Queue: 3 jobs
Job 1
Amino acid sequence: MSRLTSVRGSNNRGDKDRGSVEVNPWRVGVIFTVLVLVSAGFVWKLVDLQLSPDDDLLNNVGSYLREEKIDASRGNVVDRQGRLLAFSVPRPSIVGDPRGIAHSENPVDVDDIVAELATVLGTDPGVMATRLRSDKSFVYLERQVEPEVGEAVAALGLPGIWIMTEQYREHPNGSCSALSVVGRVDTEQVGISGLEKKYDEQLEGSPGRALRQTQLGGAVQIPDGYHVVEPHTPGEELRLSIDRNIQYEAEQLLARALRETEGTTAIAIVSNPRTGEIYAMASALRDEETGEVECSNANLGAVWTYEPGSTMKGITFAGVFDNGAWGVDEIVEVPATVYVARESDVESHAYHDYRLAHGTTVENLPSTILGHSSNTGTVLLAQELGADALQQTFENFGFGQLTGLAFPGESPGILDELDSHSLLLSNTAIGQSIAVTPLQLIQAYNTLANGGVSIAPKLVLDREPDGSAANPAHTETRVVSPQSAQTVMEMLRGVVSSGTGRRAALPGFLVAGKTGTAWQPCGDVSGYLCSEEDEEEERHYTASFVGIVENDRGPVLSAIVVIDDPQGENYTGGAVAAPVFAELAGYSVRQLHLAPFGEQTVAAQRIRSDPAVAPLALEPQESQESVQ
């Protein structure tokens, strides 16, 4: 070992010189430089790891923290009795880590992984292969699969493939049982239709936040590395006025009616005329290709419009009496034919009463005109009323505007200015040249049953999160006088007891209602599809019945049944829709425990179980009941 110091001087120079050394500046500089270079190397490596992490290193020994959202459980949708209509359950989703697969110590061919997955997943193998070859650390392969599918994928033990849990919306009764009313959510549990969309904020709740400590891509979670930062708040429950049993019965009756009549569309609404609560809102369709009947994806009762035909006559008569245009006891000279002039050089339009012989005239009271659904008698009374007053009547009853339900996608219908065309007043008075929704029409008849006071329809019994009413829009509104409403109700009872609506009778109860058989235009202009039979006349028919059921307490139930494009000779509202109304109303009063009339009433029978009277033979006067 070389010496770095030398001893100078002799012993006689004293002790202070014996241990002194001298430092070599050149050697100290070398050592310092080496230390600086080594430190700089360490610093550079640390910076490099932070800016350009080594995937293999991170996969093998590294971990990182990732903030994640904890999804809140979406609130249940239940019927008025608390029975489930929609609820969320955990479902496995199959995800992959393409980056982890590509940089694993033991590389696995993506095609081999896809081949294994294809044995249990429905996703296209080519799509899965593309996703697993991407430069991402997370991809979905198939979302919200059945639990047994998730178990099968887990059992494969494929590298870079794992299972994560997501919320999935269940509907216990499939595509029916008010699903068109409840609506749907997307894969992210966001409402996209129906009440799921309207009340999305109330149902979705508040998500939480969490830190998840994992290896790259999240394939392996570090034990005890999951730290909840903020818990989630589940969504609120939404309780509807719907009665699940009545809804189911309505759907079954509509499906049967379409099969028997070979119609294309059927709609039914059942409600409480006093509160506006809707017990059932059902719609069914016939598939154009297969001919099979199925529940509609859309809530047609609120979004579908049609020309209602003679069911509008009850509203026309309410306007006539409320405006003093004609007295209830005044005789009307009703001709078999009424001509309404059109523009010059065009033949006048003729309205017919097919009950009367050509060229004859009879004297009728307004009640008889409504009971037999006379077109000519109704047109004469509407002309006495005038376009302005009839227009105001229809607007007051809510036609041409949205109801207080404010259902997503709801249609306001079409109500033109009645003084804009010479025929429009007469056509609209008998339910033609006007488009309404079944919801608007049953609300109008509920107004008559309520003594002339309009109450908004209601589907939600809960309140909004801020405590406000769930249906805040419309308060009670006076539409016609109590006397006018009562007069029309008495006439509507006659429609069922001795007029065109006899098949809607319900033993043990009074029924006040109106039949309708309307022409619907078809072809490119109207948007309606024409059958081969329709093409010659460019129209088809829509049969309907709307009615109020009464017992000792007064009006306790209302319902409307609409059947579009029934085939065969029996296509009228009295022959097709009224019997369905009777069955549906009969089931509903039993389900709701509504008692029939007591001993002191004029009801012929007092029963609880019979749904309807036996169908009557079709009478000639009903065959053209509302057809112009």
Job 2
Amino acid sequence: MTDVSIEPIRRLLIANRGEIARRIIRTAHEMGIATVAVYADGDVGAPFVVEADAAIALNGKTSAETYLDIGKILEACRRSGADAVHPGYGFLSENATFAKAVVEAGLRWVGPSPAAIGQMGDKLAAKRLIQEAEVPTLPAIELTPDADLEAAADEIGYPVLVKAAAGGGGRGMRIVETADQLPAAVEGARREAGAAFGDDTLFLERWLVASRHVEIQILGDKYGNLVHLFERECSIQRRHQKIIEEAPSPAVDEELRRAMGGAAVSAAQRIGYSSAGTVEFLLAGREFFFLEVNTRLQVEHPVTEAITGLDLVREQLRIAQGEALGYGQDDLSFSGHAIEARIYAEDPVRNFLPSPGTVDVWRPAADGLARFDSGVESGSEVSVEFDPMIAKVIAHAPTRREAAARLARALERTSLQGLRHNRDFLVATLREPAFLAGDTTTDFIERIDPARARDLSAEDLADAVTAAVMCAQAIRRASAKVLHGFPSGWRNSVMPPERTTFKVGDGRAAHEVAVSYRSRRDGTFAMTIGEAERTVAAYSAGEGGADLEIDGRRVQFAVAGSGDRWFVHGADYDVELVELPRLPLPEQYEIKGGLTAPMPGNVLATHIAEGDAVAEGQLLLVLEAMKMQHRITAPFDGTVKEVHVAEGQQVDNGALLVLLEESEPSGEEPR
């Protein structure tokens, strides 16, 4: 007998972009559901647009003009004939007004009810509701326009967390340790929250310095059935944004799991929750405190999928179609351990500053060590307009230590080149003894300070240069229009060796590597790199890579060339080499006292004018890029000679912002 209460979804519009859009498309297609993508101008060629069955342009560039525009999304639904909307995470996923508009348009909303979203969307209101369910919470005070900031902070006790009531993903959040930091933190958080969420309401919350961020995955249907799918730990964070997540938590035993899971289900029952969601807690010892309910799919949902065997997007779609869960809490169990690492376009050496640009090479490890959920391919652009996440990499293994090893190796085996990223930092973190011991509190990065970058050894660099040279000469030989059948480098007399020079690194770390090489009659090459000589035999070399024997060592490389740039991936490292021209180019000069943009962005505010005297550390201007705000401060005491930008201006990476003249020493003897 057919269940008439089930309404199959036939065409699903995904109101999102990038990695999560591709993730939803994959499961929808497996379920026989057609998909519709929507896209901003800069995403027209993105993988998620190509992979969807249809795609509708939103005719705009920024988030506000596209993925946050409810009217445009609903019009795309009408034009495409979609009968359901999946919001993914971020953007409008926790916007009750959007969810209500979708339902009122006669479409299925893949998520909890608009009422539940509204109740949990205001984090202060959510705290009050959860307290009624007798779930412990941290003290919090709303920052109304007439609130006494210092009195509120004193009442809670330092350190305090300034937090956006409608926030998420680390945006609109600041830790404040002393009263003098409070006004600037509130101003910055309010501005960031308004830009990211359209709501600048803030509150103060007690901040636990050495705690764990542990969340419970919940899942409910429209018939009142609710379960939890155990916990995830997400304590490895920077800027309050998670970068490594795992399931289960190394700090949670079965007794604590039952207590936290029960509290999460109680909270969900209180609001009549359906679909997938997450109840987040801070865990200190064996005490846990409610943080918030995320009424959507989480970025880190794959680790729960890995240990439970459930596809959470499939469960969301089943529930939206009117299906019952079909299982209870006692039917659920988990197996093994899963860890996820988020690869971001950012520079860990420069305090994780966003680093947008072109992904020249994206080649995920192909040896089955991990699952890759990415929003990019080689040639994709990581734009300043959106979040800088490139991919999520997930490893599952019988034990936590093995999962960490598999994930670290999968990251090392992945080639990602063309922009700065945090891949090597993730590997270092996964191999830290403190991480492997489960010592993973939210202050882990500041306290343990894993290596921010991988130092390339002299031998690794020489090998990479060798691979680039061998591929370059093979490509030139293959494309030669004369003497095509002669071996590379063949001469009928003794001639000088071939010579070339590569530049490695940039900025102050840039240096040159000189190479000379000559082919021998036995088919090998005599090569000199710097002062070191080596013998090289090529089993294969050319487009795509090289299989070489270097002084009796058999090594393989993936190699990609783009003009004078060579991207080499070795056994566990990436390196970009720039082949220098034979004649030097005119040198660029550096403007003394000039402050330049550390990344492309928009000038949100300027706080100085020409002629102003400034002190070291004083705020000069604020840049926004990739949904985050960045303060440009004075590096020394001095005078503003020139201001080259204005509020609202878009600037490129390296653009001159401000010219300062350093103050002369006073000449007075220190007292």
Job 3
Amino acid sequence: MSPYPDLPATDLVEMLPAGAPQDQRLPVADPYRVLEDAEHPTTVAWSAAQEELLAAQRATWPGRGALADRITSLVSTGSVGGPAWRGRRRFSTRRDPGADLPVVLVEEDGPGGGRVERVLLDPLAIDPSGATTLDAWQPSKEGGVLAYQLSRGGTEESVLRIVDVASGELLDGPVDRLRYSPVAFTPGAEHVYYVRRLPAEQVPHGEEVYHRRVWRHTVGAGTATDVEVFGAGRAITSYYGVSVSLDGRWLVVSAREGTAPRNDVWLGDLEAATTVDGVPELVAVAEGLDAATSAGVGLDGRLYVATDAGAPRGRLAVADPADPGPERWLDLVPERADAVKEDFVLLDGPDGPLTRLLVSWTRHAISELSVHDAATGEQVGDVALPGVGSVGGLGRRPEGGAECWFGYSDTTTPAQVMRYDAVSGALDVHALAPGVASGVADLTAARAAATTVVEATSADGTTVRMLVVHPAGARPGGEEPDEPREPREPRPTVLYGYGGFANAMGPGYSAGALAWVAAGGVYATAQLRGGSEEGEEWHRAGMLGSKQHVFDDFAACARALADQGWTTPEQLTVSGGSNGGLLVGAALTQTPELFAAALCSAPLLDMVRYQLHGLGASWAVEYGDADRLPDLAWLHAYSPYHRALAAGRRRYPATLFTVFEGDTRVDPLHARKTCAALQAATTASLEDAPVLLRAERGVGHGQRTVSRSVALLADSLAFAASRTGLDVTG
């Protein structure tokens, strides 16, 4: 008798894709489809039984409480965000030690002189339960007005409100259907441009989460007077960007189909005689290019174009806003062969206003900063960063100046805000994480960790890198590659990966990784194809029909960690979430012999039906369209759910699926169905290698309170420790 909750499999098999000729269709089994319906009585009963099973198993994991305490100590750093300057006001975010969510602050001139700081927006004051989170915020150009977006229960369905900064008076809102919307104020904050979905009654059933448009909204007038600016007739999964220059003259609109690695950009002159109701004629900056492009008019009047068109590692060009097409672009900072361009900012320099460009790059996802002459693009210097780390967005005062602010973090340094002065060349710390600044945070565990770059060779010979965090002094072999190798005792190890959507895995402060390493383990982060660590070509080598490269890279990393003495298959846990959950699912069903445990969070696992749920249709440009051949063939071939069904009885590693019932991006049905398939197929005993499901209510795919994050991390790492032999009780 199975130790797992009973769920009879059906004999459902479909011939797909439905639109293909009969002789080309594939038979696709789906015996656990009932679990797609969260409200079905079978699903409700099965889920309740899974919850009871998890509770019984969790009681056997030693050290779960000690892990939670260690993680809590490591997140007592709090957090701090970079400043957004608006005249004499400075806006920023901060989470103090012990607080569950960050707040929005404003610093301004006090009534009696001097500067005062006050909390402008606190999600916990709005909803003490912590279920309401801040999705985005944006001050007006003068700083007198703030737009902010909140959502509840993890749904990420943002509702916009606009308030007066001085009085807190509500000026506008709530305005719904603004999920993932930019907000661009015009001077004086009389109008905003935003992105809002069409009402549900105006779109076909099942498409309610799509059909976005760019609108011009009059603040305080209600949405009935909104003017549609852009979006009609385009792909229903399109996302849009919108911005307005500081002087209010230039409107920039961008469009991207789903999560495609390409987009179009247009520029409109809001002062032109042909502009009607805030809708100007839009002239193409980049249209129809197979490239990602962003553009904006600088304070010097030039149009700056950042693009990977003809330059997969990125380049920066300039053009005349009156004639902005690609044939008129002039390279200012060309592509580099050894690094990926990330961001730039125009600053005053020692030789006058707007004479310097500060450019951020990554080399194998590790950040660098260079300084350039703004007129010629010639590099005139570098900025030495505090360590081997990651730089966040570069920001400056909207009206210009020599100062730039950016976030910085590395393995042992909690995120802080740095300030660079392009006139003096000085770099200093603008703001430490509040727990670090006050001395409350205990960084002992962080300071006892070290990072080593480790290389692996994938199946096709491609070199793949990992950032391996380990106890200082515990590196296998000599400190230099040519020194004699000294044997070290392999350690329980977590191998984390993502490998998709051009997301780079760089160094950074991670409470989970440091808690694991503090207990004596090793934590490795893989830089797989599908990310952007080596530019857009690296991304495209891991998408669509090349997705198998990502899984091969991950397997190569697992083998390299064992071959180089860091760990053994019996001590290795693989981990990933979202697209990284797909990665873990592929590892489970393709190379289960390489590891002992798997942490699979908010995963995509049924790649035949992924487009039918959540925001899945948006990702067809990354994965492929299951409604057509040959896409379905490759999707079905690696789909973890279907591989588990086809493989029959075999031994699987211990697996913990973690899902979030408020998740509107990746539906928990993926984990439910695959959990059922693995529980039915595994030959391992419940005591030896359990397959478990942890479902959390009231949260979604993105933001959550710190306390919920600590609980999730503690459960996940305690499970991994129990299967790999790491003692986390101390």
